[in-house]
Amino acid sequence: MTHVLSAVAWPYANGPRHIGHVAGFGVPSDVFSRYMRMAGHDVLMVSGTDEHGTPILVQAEQEGVSPQELADRYNRVIAEDLHGLGLAYDLFTRTTTRNHHAVVQEMFRTVHRNGYMVAKKGMGAISPSTGRTLPDRYVEGTCPICGFDGARGDQCDNCGNQLDAIELKHPRSRINGETPLFVETEHFYLDLPAVADALGSWLQTRAEAGRWRPNVLKFSQNLLQDLKPRAMTRDIDWGIPVPLAGWEDNPAKRLYVWFDAVIGYLSASVEWARRTGDPDAWRAWWTDPSAESYYFMGKDNITFHSQIWPAELLAHDGKGAKGGEPGAFGALNLPTEVVASEFLTMEGKQFSSSRGVVIYVRDVLARYQPDALRYFISAAGPENNDADFTWQEFATRTNSELVAGWGNLVNRTASLIAKNVGSIPERGELTDADRALLATTSAGFGTVGGLIEAHRQRGAVAEAMRVVGEVNKYLTEQEPWKIKNSDPERMRSVLHVTAQAVSDCRTLLSPFLPHSAQAVHEALGGTGTVSPMPQLREVTDLDDPSRSYPILTGDYRRGAGEGATLPEWGPRPVVPGTPVAAPKPVFTKLDVAAVVEEETERLRSKL
After folding, report:
1. Angstrom distance (rounded) from CA 22 to CA 82
2. Residue 368: pLDDT band by 50, 70, 90 thresholds?
3. Cα 287 to chain centroid, rounded
4. What is the mean pLDDT of residues 375-391?
5. What is the DSSP string of 115-173?
6. pLDDT band at residue 560 under the 50/70/90 scheme
7. Which residue, 110, 529, 585, 593, is the most exposed by fewest CB within 10 angstroms?
8. To 5 degrees, how large is the angle CA 601–CA 358–CA 163?
9. pLDDT tens per residue across span 172-205
10. Are 358 and 346 in contact (CB under 8 A)?
11. What Rg do the C-alpha atoms of the chain give, in angstroms?
12. Are 329 and 287 in contact (CB under 8 A)?
């Protein structure tokens, strides 16, 4: 057993999340985490809503509410959406907790004490109309290196080079389009050049391990070519105070939202441990060198997870050119892998909430089954290349693969057993066909599991569905309905083998389709939980009794012992004599033409 940290990107709390977001950070991390738990690993899956920074401040002003009120609203909306999708977090929290503030400030003090956080003056962008700092990512313009129009103030996504906002040609504010002013201001800068060699050595170990997606590794290594100190404070009054004398009481200086957001992986782990009653439990995932950590996000956040966060960790641990000692948290582990997905587009267009080109998670969950969306993302999502979501493909895949393929197999099997036997029958003498089928389903665990571990989820779900096809083929060829009178013993044996194969397929598909996995288990007469779901709970802030907020958490323990809710990754023998009733359909068939027409009209009405 290995301790595995599943660190999931923090959705920004300025609006509901769309399906492009969960295709990048949500479903891939959940599939991986569910599988790793079933495979026997001790998984800690953490995240929360990112709630600081200028965008929330600007939006709150526009709506006439406080930044905290805006964050409270969307923290709840996002938590509800992720709960509906079945994302099995050990803790989904938020960055406005007192616990998070304390962990972030401790990290800052240690990095500063080690000499990697340096105060200096530089030129910062501000909005002429408000006088507020414009975050790097909210300044766009033409890249001075490659000429791409649409480069941001922190990097150019076209050529991958890091930039400063002042270097952009024809800079403009993404908030209101105005030309920013650049003024001198003092900030703390993370000394990235001082950890450049350590970053390079770490990335080399990742290259030698051969596990990272090539595009992520190449992009990350290219970032090393032009490292510059990076400002980690901002001129803003919404965020975490700088915990140093002469700075902490300054109402207009706060830590950079991206400095505090990535530390959320650590602070959420600490909060989880505190809520379990063992405040040091988090250390098994963070300070044990044998533990592994996987970070899930969209490709636009690679920089912060393969450069900024590792640099903060190295500086905290004192492993850069300036030396130093770890702080109160001890020496913290660097990421094992940064698992970045490409972008999901919609009907050939980039997602854009402001332009109405958007499908919100909650809207899909209100009209369709959550596993239908999870299946599309798993089977056709942006794993290694950009992918396009169309309602035509969504509805067609749902009908042809989930309903006609997997759902039909479950229904046929349960119906035949219910009608002809009434319970899981005993198994008779196995034929070559029986043994071949059971060998196929058994071998699927190694193949599908290996693909999930390698973050090749499209291949994994395709392999699981191939096995489903083999079971369908077996049942069609054996025709147990034709021999119920002439050879009832053989009929019962075929139905037993089919039930076992369906049970195996249910386990193979459960990381992808957790809601229907439970339904399939029950269709074959199973009791208890085989596919645990997250719980949405209201809790009180651990350090501020006046505040409460929703969290996602759950019990995902594996095995057959007391309190366990999760089966092991492997065949689970069906039990003869288990009553099986006439089943209900597991998946809902869609009217493809109607879905396309209705959803296209909904999109058109937003434009």
Report:
1. 8
2. very high
3. 23
4. 96
5. T-EEEEEEEEEE-TTT-PBPPGGGEEEE-TTT--EEEESSB-TTT--B--GGGSEEEEE
6. low
7. 593
8. 150
9. 998 889 999 999 989 999 999 999 999 999 999 9
10. yes
11. 26
12. yes
Q: Which of 482, 480, 469 is nearest to 413 (CA)?
A: 480
For the segment 128-151, what is each residue's pLDDT rounded down to a tens digit? 998 877 877 789 999 999 999 999
Can you give the length of the chain in residues?
A: 607
Identify the three-state secondary structure at position 545: strand
pLDDT single digits (tens) 445-498:
999 999 999 999 999 999 999 999 999 999 999 999 999 999 999 999 999 999
Cross-strand bridge partners of residue 538: 550
566 has a pLDDT exceeding 90:
no
- The DSSP element (H or E) to which 199 belongs, if any, is helix 196-209
For the entire predicted model, the pTM comes to 0.94
**Per residue, what are the HEC states of 433-450?**
HHHHHHHHHHHHHHHHHH
Residue with tokens 């057959």, as numbered in its chain? 560
Cβ contacts of residue 362 below 8 Å, gap of 6+?
16, 77, 80, 81, 84
**Distance (Å, whole) CA 400 – CA 445:** 24
Closest by alpha carbon to 517, among 535, 504, 500?
504
Burial profile 459-490: b = 16 or more Cβ within 10 angstroms, e = fewer: bbbebbbebbebbbebbeebebeeebeeeeeb
**Residue 58 corresponds to which tokens in the numbers above?**
């600007």
245, burial (CB in 10 Å: exposed 0-12, middle 13-18, buried 19+) = exposed
Specify whether the CB–CB gap between 88 and 270 falls below 8 A: no
Using one digit for the tens of pLDDT, what is the confidence trace for 287-309? 999 999 999 999 999 999 999 99
pLDDT (tens digit, 9 = 90+) per residue, 570-590?
A: 999 999 999 999 999 999 999
Question: Higher-confidence residue: 161 or 229?
Answer: 229
Q: Beta strands 42-49 and 91-94: pairing type?
A: parallel
Structure tokens at 66: 């406080």
For tokens 């074959």, what's the residue? 524
